[in-house]
Amino acid sequence: MDTIRVRLPNSRKGEQFAIAELMLGSFHIRVRSSDGVSRLGRIKGKMKRRVWIREGDIILITPWAFQDEKCDIIYRYTPPQRDWLRRNKYV
Hints:
Elements: E1 16-25, E2 28-33, E3 38-43, E4 58-63, E5 70-76, H1 79-87
Parallel strand pairs: 3-5
Antiparallel strand pairs: 1-2, 1-4, 2-3, 4-5
């Protein structure tokens, strides 16, 4: 069995799991975070044009401190990583 490395949320930085719900264009995505809030997510600059996010993907977000209804998308989980997260009951 191969070793799968999975990045987990850093609670000190406010990171949390979310699911991509709706693609809005211009690097914006409507996401549903693990605390039940629907937010407008913005794909960070280093992820633009390198990582493609689709509806239903599990992602890692950081909510904005000054506008709670917006967040930055900082990581997208691959299918083997999603399976590992589900097996170990993180999502």
